[in-house]
Amino acid sequence: MSLKRKEIRHAVVDMLRRKKTDARERVYGNRSQNVWNEHLPAIMVYPRSEEATERSQAPREIKRTLMLVVEMVCDGKNDDEAADNLDNLADQVERILGADDTLNCTVNDIILESVEFEQEEEAQKPLATSRLIYNVEFYEFVPEDRRDQKDIDDFTDVKADWDVGTANDPDPEATDEIELPQV
User: Fold this and answer.
1) What is the tens place of the pLDDT at every residue in 110-138?
2) In a 3-state reduction of DSSP, which class is residue 3?
3) Would you state the pLDDT for residue 128?
4) What gap in Å lies between CA 136 and CA 140, rounded to an integer?
5) When comparing pLDDT for 77 and 150, which is higher?
6) Whole-angstrom Cα distance, residue 6 to residue 1?
7) Which range, of 8-17, 120-129, 139-148, averages the lowest pLDDT?
8) Is 23 helix (H, G, I), strand (E, B) or coil?
9) What domains can be seen in the chain, in order of their start residue?
10) How many CB atoms neighbour CB 141 within 10 A?
C-alpha cells in the first residue's frame, strides 16, 4: 500500500521542480538528503504520518490522510535576508501546490494544515528553515489487485445446497452447481 505514498511524494517533487522555485532542481524526495550551505535554497519532501479509516466494507475501501512535509532551507547574508528568502520560497511552494489540489488527479485533496519556522543560531552562516505540513487525502481498495495475491484461489465454481429444514431429512432438497467462465 505504500506505493501510493511514493507516487504522491514523487508528484510533489516533480511539480516543484517543473514550476521553477528558487530552489530550482534542489528538490529532494527524502529528508536524509545532505543539504550543504553552497547548495541552498533546498526543498525536501517526506511523509510524517498517516491516518487510515474504513470508508466501505464491500469492497473494503480505506480513506487515508497522509501528513506530508515540505521542508525548506534558505540562507542569506544576515538573519533578515535568510528569513526573507525563506518567506519567498514558502510562498512559491504554497502557490504551486495550491493551484493543483489533486496533484494532477493523484489524490482526492491536498490542503495546507500548518507551517513551522526555525532560525539556525549556530550555523556557519544565517540559515532559516520552514516546514509546510499538508494533509493529503486519498482512497485505496484493500487488496487493490487480487491477481497479485498468490494465496487466494480463483473463483471458478459455486455449489449451493437448498434445504427447507425438515427435521427427518438431513439431505438438501436441491443442489445447484455452477462453473464460472474464466477470462
Assistant:
1) 999 999 998 877 767 889 999 999 999 99
2) helix
3) 92
4) 13
5) 77
6) 10
7) 139-148
8) coil
9) 3-141 (3.30.2000.10), 146-179 (no CATH)
10) 13
Type of residue found at 92: Q
Amino acid at 71: E
Strand partners, 54: 62
Can you tell me the distance from the alpha carbon of 127 to that of 75, in angstroms, rounded to the nearest whole number? Answer: 4
**Cα of 1 vs its chain's centroid, Å:** 10
Residues paired with 111 in a beta bridge: 135
User: Distance between CA 74 and CA 148 in Å, rounded?
Assistant: 45
**pTM for the structure as a whole:** 0.74
Answer whether 87's CB lies under 8 Å from 156's CB: no
Counted residue by residue, the chain has a size of 183
Task: Show the CA angle centred on residue 119, arms to residues 86 and 44, nearest 5°.
Answer: 55
pLDDT of residue 148: 57
Which residue's entry shows cell 540559515?
A: 127
End-to-end CA distance of the chain: 27
| Contact in structure between 118 and 128 (CB atoms under 8 Å) | yes
pLDDT at 78 over 60: yes
